[in-house]
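Give me the fold.
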Amino acid sequence: MKTIITILIILATGYGVLAQEPLNRYLETAAQNNPALKAKFNDYMAELEKIPQVGTLPDPQLVFGYFAMPVETKNGPQRFNISFTQLFPWFGTLGSREDVFANTAKAKYEAFEESKSKLFFDVRSSYYDLYFVKKGIDVTLENIRILRSFRRLALIKVEAGKSSGVDELRVEMDLANLENDLALLKDRYQVFAVKFNNLLNVDSNAGIEIPDTLWSDDLLLTRQAVLDTLLQKNHQLRSLDYKFESFKSKEELAQKNGTPNIILGVDYINIGKVSGVDNSGKDALLFKVGITLPFYRKKYTSLVNEALYLQQSTKDQKEDKINALETLFEKVYSEYADANRRITLFKKQSDLASKATRILESEYSFSGKNFEEVLRMERSLLKYSLELEKARADKQAAIAFINYLMGR
């Protein structure tokens, strides 16, 4: 089963192998190991096994009868008989039964594909969370390093009488806040790492390879193209389509169940010999043909109506699902557009804050003034750096969710 699922994953993720090699390896691992996904696959395989069960003829009947008191006939006493009977459902009945379960199996397969797509989204989303937290740790560590250099500079200025001792205290306060933030980020990273490894069903302490900079994939389809693909390829909608087809086959089966079944059979009767009688001891062979009589129509009408109600229910479910998916898409598409805007904004803000920080540092080095402004700008630079990484992670998460909605 692992081989089958792995092939499905390679087909689904091959387009991004070079750019996202570590993540694609994790996706393959998740598909091979995740117990929930394997359960869905086994549900599908079990459903397939029902098709040959319903697509074959009923078991024939073979009956042996022994006359405790032989029946005397002019050709001799009847000693025992053997009867063989086979029932044949009306033409097309077996095919309709197979269609019911074949379409149900297809619906189960789409449920497996839905579970796989959801798993892939969860893995990707968790991976992007890990990326953001790791970058948060890196940026915070860099800011701690910078603030420590500021502290040394402030001490020099204080000793030279060019600055107040308050500057050093301000640095200490900011360092304490950053060290607390760093501890919180490390705790969050551990939580996300355990969640990620559990999705892969591997050791919760297994190492995770995170890129230094997240790739900048874009959504290649237009908004309308995404919506069109969603309506055609979404696995939940396709599963409902197959359920609808299964109920149509169930309606046809209910109608065929109301037709006669054909019965064919043969009886062999063993006859003993009687001395002095011609043709005595000649066994008898009886061929039989018959039909069942479906007189009680109420149950067959009820079966047809049940199938019709189920068809209508499935149509209503699909309409409701389409509305829900379109609402979800609009929400995530707005998040994708917002992430794009934030990336542009925070790149610009980070550049400006970086330039401003360098200018203020230079001025403070000479004059010992505006140290509070230096720290404020450094905090702004930290904020913009983190917001930029958050926007990058949010963008890729939005793309992953849109691909999930499209059944990719």
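The longest strand covers residues 61-73.
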